[in-house]
Amino acid sequence: MYKDAIIAAVVPAYKEEKMIARVIETMPAFVDHVVIVDDCSPDGTSDVVTSLADPRVTLIRHEVNQGVGGAIITAHRAAMALGADVNVVMAGDAQMDPAYLPDLLDRVTDDGYGFAKANRFYAPESFHGMPGYRVFGNIALSFLTKLASGYWNLFDPQNGYTAVRTEVLRRVPLDRVAKRYSFENDLLIHLNILQVPAVDVPIPAVYGDEVSSIRLSRVVPELIGRLTRGFWTRVWYRYVLWSFSPIALLGFLGLGLFVFGLAVSIWMVFQIAASVVATAATVMLAALPLMIGTQLLISALQLDIQATPSTPTYPAFRERDAAS
C-alpha cells in the first residue's frame, strides 16, 4: 500500500516483448497490483510476462486489437475489480520513470485531487532538441484540448502517465471513452463534465530507441473530430442541461452574432467585387455583430477558464480511513 491506499499499475502493452520485463522488474514495491493488457500483440509480449511470475501481475490478452485506450480501459476495470483505491497508468515501453510515481500519487492520496497527470513540458528547456514541428504540434494540441476539455490548468494532454482515484473512475462511462490515441484527451472531457479536480505534475519522460507506430494522417483527423464533439458535449452537460449557465448564454449568443456578421461580411466582399458600393449601414450590419459577438465569446471563454475544476475536494486516504 501507499499511504493507506491500494495502488494498481495498469499497463497497456502492444509489441513490447523487449521492454515489458523492465516495466515489471522496476515496479515499486508499494504497488499492490500490476494489470497488464496485451492488446493482441503479434510477438511474445504475453510469454515474457508469464515467464517472470511476479505474484502482483494480472495478465489479460485481447483477442482483437482495441488500441491503447481500449487496453487501458480493460486494465482499469480489472484493477477496480481487484479492489484498488488508485490506478496509475504506466506504458509498456518503460517511458514512464517509476522513480516519479510518488510525486504523482501524492497529489491524489494526500492533496485531494481526483486525477493527476505528468507534464513533460514544465520548463522552457523541456523543448530542447525537439523538432520545431513537434513543438508547434504539442502547443496547438494542448490549446485545443484545454478548449475542449475545460481543464485550462493542464498541459501536455497526450502524456499518459496518470493517477486517478477509482471512486472517480466508477463515475466515468468508460464504454463511451475513446479507445484509440485520443483516449487521454477524451478522458479529460469526461472528467471535466463530472467536475473532477485535476492537476499537472512536472515529470520528465524517458526516451529510448522505440519507434512510434502513430500515423499522423489517421490520428490527427480522429483527434480533431473527438475534441470537437467533446467540446459540445461538455458545454451541453455542464452549461445547458444541468444548469443554464451564463457561459452558455454568452457563448451561443456570441457565436450567433459572430456567424451572422461574418456571413454579411463575405456577402459584402462579393458585392464590392461586383462594383457595388457598400453603404455605411451595410458596413455596420457586418461590423457590429462581429465586434459584439467576439466580445461575448471572449467573456464566455473567461468564465469557462474560471470554472476549471482545480480546487482539491477529496479527503486524504489516511483521513478517510480514520473517519471510517
Give a quick summary of the entry.
By secondary structure, the protein is α/β, with parallel strands linked by helices. Helix content is about 50%, strand content about 10%.
Keywords, please?
324 residues; 49% helix; alpha/beta; 2 domains; elongated; Spore Coat Polysaccharide Biosynthesis Protein SpsA, Chain A; seven-stranded mixed sheet; 11% strand
Overall pLDDT score: 90
What share of the residues does DSSP label as strand, in percent?
5-15%
Oligomer: single chain
Number of domains: 2
Protein architecture, described:
It contains eleven helices and seven strands. Strand 1, helix 1 (20-25) and strand 2 (33-38) form a beta-alpha-beta unit. The protein has helices at 20-25, 45-52, 67-81, 101-109, 132-149, 166-169, 183-193, 216-241, 246-273, 280-306, 317-323; strands at residues 7-13, 33-38, 57-61, 86-89, 115-119, 162-165, 198-202. Helix content is 49%, strand content 11%. A seven-stranded mixed sheet has the order 3-2-1-4-6-5-7, with helices on both faces. Helix 5 packs parallel to helix 8, helix 7 (183-193) packs parallel to helix 8 and helix 9 (246-273) packs antiparallel against helix 10 (280-306). 38% of the residues are buried. The protein has two domains: 7-239, Spore Coat Polysaccharide Biosynthesis Protein SpsA, Chain A; 244-306. The longest helix is centred in the last third of the chain and has 28 residues, at 246-273. It starts with 6 loop residues before the first strand and ends with a helix. The chain is of the alpha/beta class.
